[in-house]
Amino acid sequence: MFVLSTTVPNDLFQAAYFIFTKYAPLFIFGAKNTLIIALSSTVIGLVLGLGVGIIRTLPIGATDNFLKKLIIKALKLMTSIYVEVFRGTPMMVQAVFIYYSLNGLFSSSRMFAGIFIVSINTGAYMAEIIRSGIQSLDSGQNEAARSLGMSNFQTMLFIILPQAIRNAFPAIGNEFVVNIKDTSVLNIIGISELFFQANSIAGTLYKMKETFFVVACVYLFLTYSTTLVLKYIEKKMNMTGYDGPRSSTTPLIIGHFKGDLS
Questions:
Q1: Which range among 6-10, 122-126, 135-139 has the greatest average pLDDT?
Q2: 59: exposed, middle or buried (C-beta count within 10 Å: 0-12, 13-18, 19+)?
Q3: Is 57 helix (H, G, I), strand (E, B) or coil?
Q4: Calpha distance 14→149 (Å, rounded)
């Protein structure tokens, strides 16, 4: 329980330091929830995006039967609608609509609601990232894998997806950074993330400018430190973004499975 104080300094930086030290547990609690929601939603969104991205790149062969063509076209239509809707509307609107539409599902946990909302929003963006990563690869790799007897599933799992994810890693990491900031919209449905806590403190002290200066610094610390970690991982894994496939990757992977498939 915090004791209210009216002795907040008038200087911006002194006031910010006073507010941060006095209400540090609340800022830390909000930052923890922000990171939990952002990280969980990025991972779930990536899994969802993988599925949607793969569906959107499924080829329709001339020899495919009518039913198969119909199913693929229907799946592509549904995933296209999903991507366009969630990329074309603000997350704040999505949060309010989904939360109150599925209020019974979320009545026990607002955190679950936040993770669910951000995950499906992230999945739409991840789907486009994965689709771009897959389409950036040379189509000859599919032909090489098929000539060795690999199925479509094996080709996608062991050859295409590893390269697509590696090429798309900078964009995937960027989605995590974006999610750290975008969780602030969840305050509209009462989730106690960082922005919600800052809003509560500012309303208590009537010090909007000083409080949100503090929260801006906290967000900057979270995003900058996350960016440094992601850059380190990218460097260690020798990832370079959407620059096309590495020429040595496919032969190594195909060579690994050649003995099992020949």
A1: 122-126
A2: exposed
A3: coil
A4: 69
- Helix, coil or strand: residue 106: helix
122 is written with which tokens? 């992230």
CATH number of 12-261: 1.10.3720.10
Cα separation, 262 vs 260, whole angstroms: 6
Tokens encoding 165: 């994810």
With 0-12 / 13-18 / 19 or more C-beta atoms within 10 angstroms meaning exposed / middle / buried, residue 6 is exposed
Entry pTM: 0.83
Is 226 in contact with 243 (CB distance < 8 Å)? no
* Angle at alpha carbon of residue 38, lines to 103 and 165, rounded to 5°: 120
- For 78-134, write each residue's pLDDT tens digit: 999 999 999 999 999 999 999 999 888 887 788 999 999 999 999 999 999 999 988
Which burial class, exposed, middle or buried, applies to 235 when counting CB atoms under 10 A from its CB (0-12, 13-18, 19+)?
exposed
Tokens of 132: 């771009």
Distance CA 194, CA 27 (A): 6
The first and second tokens of residue 202, run together, are 């500012």
Q: Which residue has the tokens 């020899």?
A: 63
CA distances from 217 to 12, 32, 68 (A): 13, 15, 53
Task: Decide if 57 contacts 131 (C-beta within 8 A).
Answer: yes
Question: Could you tell me the CA-to-CA distances from 196 to 26, 29, 172 in Å, in that order?
Answer: 10, 11, 26
Question: Minimum mean pLDDT among 11-20, 53-62, 141-150: which range?
Answer: 141-150
pLDDT in tens, 25-69: 999 999 999 999 999 999 999 999 999 999 998 888 777 888 988
